[in-house]
């Protein structure tokens, strides 16, 4: 179904950025994907050195809520800022 793919690419992009952050920096990020019935949601948490959550973002896979578009943009920006020298290929296009 077309609706099922509404935010799928955004979720994949954020997951890839989380992988890059974990591989290329000492930052602690958590990517949590939860699926239950027709609700599939991603939660991303960024922690400080003390293990406290300093930023968090969420994005629903099947529904496109306005506030979540900003969450996606904010999460992407945050993850890109965590990458060493901002050398993420997703940011170069």
Give the strand order of the largest sheet, numbering strands 1, 2, ... along the chain. 1-2-3
Using DSSP, what is the number of strands?
A: 3
Q: How much of the polypeptide forms β-strand, as a percent range? A: 25-35%
The main pleated sheet reads as: 3 strands, antiparallel
Helix run count:
2
The averaged pLDDT comes out at 82
Low-confidence stretches: 88-93
Q: Outline, from the CA principal axes?
A: globular
Order of helices and strands: HEEEH
Helix content: 25-40%
Write a structural description.
The protein has 93 residues and is an alpha+beta fold. The chain has one domain (3-85). It has helices at 8-24, 66-82, and strands spanning 28-36, 39-47, 53-60. A 3-stranded antiparallel β-sheet has the order 1-2-3. Helix 1 (8-24) packs parallel to helix 2. The chain starts with 7 loop residues before the first helix and ends in an 11-residue tail after the last helix.
Quick rundown:
With 93 residues, this protein is an alpha+beta fold. It has helices at residues 8-24, 66-82; strands at residues 28-36, 39-47, 53-60.
Describe how the helices and strands are arranged:
Layout: H1 8-24, E1 28-36, E2 39-47, E3 53-60, H2 66-82
Supply database-style keywords.
2 helices, 93 residues, alpha+beta, single chain, 28% strand, three-stranded antiparallel β-sheet, 3 strands
